[in-house]
């Protein structure tokens, strides 16, 4: 049986609920991730901060569908709004779900979750709820390739 811990990525950035949005944006940019895990000071997984949650709060209602005639105005308004949001705490914008997978879960279960729920990234915790890493679709593909190669022998 293949386990999540055999395929997950262990190196990652995280933020705490007390960190500010500015720090979250910088970490997202540097790590090339549009989502970050939120952990408490003991590294227990408590939620997720998505770039979309931040964008929805700084770009007016037309989020995602910027009319080219209003683009300049919308970007300027977003910049102005971000001035007020950047110092606020992550906990105001995070999703408090604790939807994470366990590191000892079977990869077949993860494949089902990722494909049926259209999840591209799942955070991984141990049995005590401590953040251990994440798993994304490229890891799922690696697992599937291993299954193909192991079954063709």
Largest sheet: 3 strands, mixed
CATH class: Alpha Beta
Instruction: List the helices and strands in order.
Output: HEEHHEHEEH
Shape: elongated
CATH-assigned fold name: CBS-domain
Our count of domains comes out at 1
- The percentage of residues in β strands lies in 15-25%
CATH architecture descriptor: Roll
Number of helices: 5
Descriptive key words:
153 residues, alpha+beta, CBS-domain, three-stranded mixed sheet, two-stranded antiparallel ribbon, 5 strands, 39% helix
Describe this entry's structure for a reader:
This protein has helices at residues 21-31, 51-58, 71-85, 107-116, 137-151, and strands at residues 35-39, 45-50, 101-102, 121-125, 131-136. It is elongated. Helix 2 (51-58) packs across helix 3. The chain is of the alpha+beta class and 153 residues long. The protein has a 3-stranded mixed β-sheet with strand order 3-4-5. Strands 1-2 form a two-stranded antiparallel ribbon. The protein starts with 20 loop residues before the first helix and ends with a helix. It has a single domain (4-151), classed as CBS-domain. Helices cover 39% and strands 16% of the residues.
